[in-house]
Amino acid sequence: MGKSKSRKFKRPQFSPNSKHGNNAGEEAIEKDEEEGEAFSSAGDLLEKLQSPSPDIREFACASISRLVQQTQVIPSFLQRDVVRCLGPMLLDKSFAVRETAAGALRNLSACGGFEVCDDMVKQDIMTPLVALLKECSAGFHSNSVLSPKSKDEQKNYTEDVANEAINLLWNVCESSSRAVSVFSKEGLLDVVMSCLERHSENVELAVSAAYCLQTVTEDNPELLCRLTPSSLQVLESVMMSSQSTMEHLLLRTLAAGCVWNLKSALPSSSQAETLSAVMRILSNSLEVDAGQAILELKEQESRRREEGKEREVQPCSDRPGEEMGSREGDGMEEGDEETGKPNTSPDNDISDLLPPKNEEVKQATALLSAQQTSLEIIVNMCCSDDPSDDEWEELSSSDESDMCAESSLCECSGVQVLSPLCLSAEIHTALISFLLPEKLSGVRRSSNPLDTDVDLLPGVLITVRAGLTVLTVFPRMHQVQCRALFCLHNMLSVMEGEALGGVVALQALAEHLSQLVFSQPEIPKEDEFLEAVTSAVRSLLQIMASRNIPQCMSPQQLIGLCEAAAQCSHTSVRVNAIAILGITGSTLAKQHHTADKLQMIGSFLLQVATKDPSLVGTGEALDALFDVFADGVEAERAARHIKLLPALRTLQPVFKAKMRKEGREKYSPDQLCVLDNVKVNLRRFISYLETLEKKPNP
């Protein structure tokens, strides 16, 4: 049997800066209304960008920002050169127009995907974007740039614009190597570092900058040549920050990821200390109990909402006109013709176009993002730099070695850098805790009749109060747990058993996985979870089998998992399931009184070999059958009972015909080589079974 390669994560797909204030029903109604107007309004909105009024230009940008969140609307804007129309707005005289234009382009890049981002770069969006970012960076240290307002207001406007621009930069750099090259050549590293330096005053801006920096520092030798000691000092200062909010936790985690990407540029004198700090940050991020933290945040939100209701029913002030007067005197009714925000009268209110300001949701999302980022960093630490590691190894053969990949130390400046896994015990312990069903339990069952119970994962029961925006954090909890499983898979693939804690730790890990997967009456069918959990179980069983370590998962339980995985459309999930049963069956074949269990496993593998739609699945199932029934009295008894020989005789010509028909069209040369090997082994195995057939029954 072969083994799967480590899973390496790219940076996550970016998300649009969309509003979450309305519930799903209201959003669906709004979407239907907007779809009918999209094509007719695109031209009108782009025309309004040329208006002499900054209020109208801002309103047009904000409207475009909202509309492009509907992917079906994007082509109508692209046909009208929306990028070339919005590009100059990044350098508009009005700060408000700059911010909303950058937000519109950010949403366009996020919702349009990689092709739209690449097209934006080809249409030279980088020229005005670079100019805007450099101006914002200079504005951080200036008292007045384009605005006569106070220093504090000026600073906020500059930082707000910079935040949108940095997010746009992150999106295009994620999708375009050309944008990354411009980033390096134009010296945007200094701009991003200046945003990071403001982490104590504006953590949101610093987080955006850290996300962008983590993207552009990955596999970018050109940028390494331009790195200065001062840039590393900025990252180190961020990592050493002591603020306790979840956003700062996320920021430190992202900074640690950037340092890991830049590890080859670290001074040899401080390299070991710096990388140890990276490990501590990742460990600290994973140690936070997300379920408990979100419970506390939900309680805070509930208290805040109750306090808001109490204020609404309180009697008016002793000075009846006070609130009205304060609004009239704040100078915003007419708007600032060049640099201010538009007036806030009902006819011009655009607040519904802007993102929500829910502090609890922000903190919960930041925590889960920090933990997901930590797990992804660890996953990537387990992978070599070989580009092929980004792909799942979908085929294996009996002739391939089962030896675990050797973890090698990376040499840099004469110092041994963190190997693919010199991970701390704290990280290992924190990772294991993510596999407990109660770890990400979120909000528990409630007696409130308006609450709804939602099962995202086995053992993960979440109660969501109708209409609360806190609902948005729960899909991320699911993602984090799946990342933990992928992380575990990679660690098991590259680490020796002793480094993982030895026999006792591996058996405890098997119990955790068993509890996670089998604690519910029905195994979940969600693709990402199935891929993550089958990868982890496969790697764990493989390392335990190679060391003859007993494990707690019964063949019946594993067959239940594999039956769920066999229904998945992803070949890699089905291959994992087959490998799990192959490993289990090979172990049972060496034991006494296991013929009944081998019959169950053999029947399942035969069914997969016969019915799997892919030659990949068929080849893997045959490979597993060869291993399970290769030798032993129990295997011989089971093979006779399930009539393995006649089944394989029937399957052999079908397999050959399918290879001739589909082989060269659907599969790579490497895959065909493995399939040819399976075909040869099938012929030999049938001959072996025919020899056994002539012997008396065992």
UniProtKB/TrEMBL annotation:
Positions of the UniProt region annotated as Disordered: 1-42, 299-355
Biased composition (Acidic residues): 27-37
Basic residues composition-biased segments: 1-11
Biased composition (Basic and acidic residues): 299-330
Pfam families: TPR_SYO1
Domain named SYO1-like TPR repeats: residues: 473-691
Entry similarity comment: Belongs to the nuclear import and ribosome assembly adapter family.
Record's protein name: HEAT repeat-containing protein 3-like isoform X1
Organism classification: Eukaryota, Metazoa, Chordata, Craniata, Vertebrata
